[in-house]
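forwarding from the other thread:

> can someone predict this with heme C?

sure thing
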Amino acid sequence: MKHAALALALWMGAFAGACGSATPPPETAADKDDFDGETLPSEDKATADSESAKPAKAEKSEKTAEAGEGEGEAPAKSTPVQTTKFEADLKKIGINLKKIPELEKLPTAQKKKVMPLLQKALGYDTCEGCHAEGDFKKETRDMKVAREMWRNFVVPLRSESGGTLFCDSCHAGNEHVLNRKDKKALQAFMEEEYQNKLARANKEDMECGTCHGDAMETKIIEKLWNIPK
Ligand code: HEC
Ligand code: HEC
Ligand code: HEC
């Protein structure tokens, strides 16, 4: 696991160097009043370059390019929390919704049945939204993110009413759900949707720090979960 992550980081680093897209865009005046003063994650920096380097994404990039929208494009408005459409499916698969196990701990048969739900929840055209072509065992960045999203959100969190919180509760059929351009709107979104409309399975209060940690790390995927871009 550790070795795979390191290898991936080295590989991605090497590529970023090769295509010269490692430098984030310069900070603009609008970013200066962020609540943490950090630069924007460079979501629109050479997305096409870095994405086309990922074999798992090549097909999808082509498709979205045809449809006229770039891969990795942020929605105009952040996606509100919705009730999961997959509660019955999860129950049928045999997952105990009162005490959802981590993804990697599911028996293989259940794991495989859950896969199409992940694909639908994220709105991917094929399994290659996360997997490398022809190799479901090959570790990809999206698999790492998916596993951590499951561990940190699906396992310990619930809907406002105490129901299941699944991938589609936040993703609603989209990979990208946040508009990060307007920081004020994003913070209001986080408070109204992720803090006020979600709950914890252990009934403790939902706070920004429940997901962002005590030090309020905004780059959850990269810094808290240690998954490099
Ligand atoms: C949102 C990301 C995501 C999507 C989409 C996805 N998978 Fe997966 N898949 C994972 C992760 C993460 C694992 C590893 C789970 C673990 O840690 O055991 C996995 C594991 C698997 C495995 C087990 C591999 C092994 O180790 O034996 C199979 C088979 C698989 N997926 C098939 C599929 C199929 C078929 C689809 C499309 C219907 C699909 N997956 C879509 C994330 C995804
Ligand atoms: C509490 C809400 C929430 C839940 C539940 C959730 N996600 Fe996410 N996910 C997010 C947010 C927010 C992002 C960042 C999206 C953005 O940048 O627009 C994200 C990003 C992702 C990404 C893209 C990461 C990247 O940067 O390329 C993947 C893949 C993903 N989630 C998979 C999943 C899967 C699989 C599940 C269910 C196991 C899941 N998510 C559950 C909120 C959630
Ligand atoms: C249910 C989990 C959850 C809660 C609760 C939550 N957030 Fe977030 N937040 C996320 C995720 C996931 C992301 C995307 C992280 C990433 O890209 O690594 C995010 C991103 C952000 C970002 C954007 C960071 C960037 O650089 O683009 C800000 C700002 C933010 N959250 C503020 C807040 C505030 C303020 C609160 C409390 C009112 C809060 N969040 C509560 C999950 C949560």
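The beta strands are 157-159, 198-200. thats all i got for now
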